[in-house]
Amino acid sequence: MFRKIIPFYLVTLVLIPLFFPSVSQASSSSCYNINQNSKTLINVPVANIWKDTSAKRTIDQNTLTKVVDMKSWTSKMSTTEFRKWLVGKLETQALYGSEVKVLKTSGSWVQVAVKDQGTPKNKYGYPGWMPKSQISKQKGDFTECNIASVKAKTANLYDDKRKKFLEVSFNTRLPVIKEEKAWVQVMIPSNKRKWMKKKDLHLYSSLANIPKPKGNDLVQTGKTFLGLPYLWAGISAYGFDCSGFTYSIYQYHGITIPRDAADQAKQGKFVYKSKLKPGDLLFFAYEKGKGRVHHVGMYVGNGKMIHSPNSGKNIEMVSIHISPFKEEYAGARRYIK
């Protein structure tokens, strides 16, 4: 029987696609494994973490739903009295995409520990209560994905590069799924893909690869928030408390420090007042500096610090040689080399 002989070069052309996938095939591979265990993440732009589940004010109701508008909430608290009410009632906040561990459930509330906020209060992270509707289970392991870190005060997520989906705060971090010239596609806590403008972000291959800052880098980041009203327990661009401010600035630059001022004062390297450098943290305590630490600021140089003072005031730069700071000075710590 006659058999037609197929030239070798034709056989080769047929086989090549079997061993070398096309560009479209290759691009379908991703940095994440969707079959890995899920994590519990914050699924609102900023979640308030409360001391307990007791009744909240009417003004706080729009922060207790699935849709949280922090800009509206903070703008409505136009008086010092409204803001002071939060003292002792609000524990901290958590940003969109932050991981939490659920400790307890009580009706529509959950007690969580915010994992990236270190504290002696709980080994898993900073504890407090929040509405169950504000957390989400995200499937997959994204540790091999690049990280998008919001550098703007606020940035928008988009459904299709045109329709706005959500506004998030400075220092929000999300895994990157795809990069384009001016856009980045990220995976959000609800397991959906959204777009962000690259100009609003820093992109890192991992948290460990965030460039180590100089003291002036920390100071310059802090100065972008001058004039922002103080917010008890705040850790976002909608308002910071004193330690939330220093914690957030350091975390943005890849350095993890404790959440609260008293705990920040126990770590880092002790620095003499005569040896202060920009970026050092300054602590202030009751009983003329000998009692409990109650405040923290960041040294900017020339005998001044930047800090978030208290309810009714804004982030400001002041001399450390005036009252009450001169009398209450309790030492300084350095967290960078």
Summarize the structure.
This protein is of the alpha+beta class and 337 residues long. The chain has helices at 8-19, 23-26, 70-76, 80-84, 215-223, 242-252, 261-264, 286-289, 325-328, and strands spanning 39-42, 46-50, 90-95, 100-106, 109-114, 126-131, 135-138, 147-150, 154-158, 164-169, 173-179, 183-187, 193-197, 201-204, 235-236, 239-240, 269-271, 281-285, 293-301, 304-307, 316-319, 329-334.
Structure, explained:
This protein is α+β, with helices and mostly antiparallel strands and 337 residues long. It folds into 3 domains: 39-138, no CATH class; 147-207, SH3 type barrels; 215-334, endopeptidase fold (from Nostoc punctiforme) (Alpha-Beta Complex), CATH 3.90.1720.10. Helices cover 18% and strands 32% of the residues. The protein has 9 helices and 22 strands. A hairpin with a 5-residue loop joins β9 and β10 (164-169). The radius of gyration is 24 Å and the shape is globular. The model is unreliable at 1-29 (pLDDT under 50). Residues 212-336 form the NlpC/P60 domain.
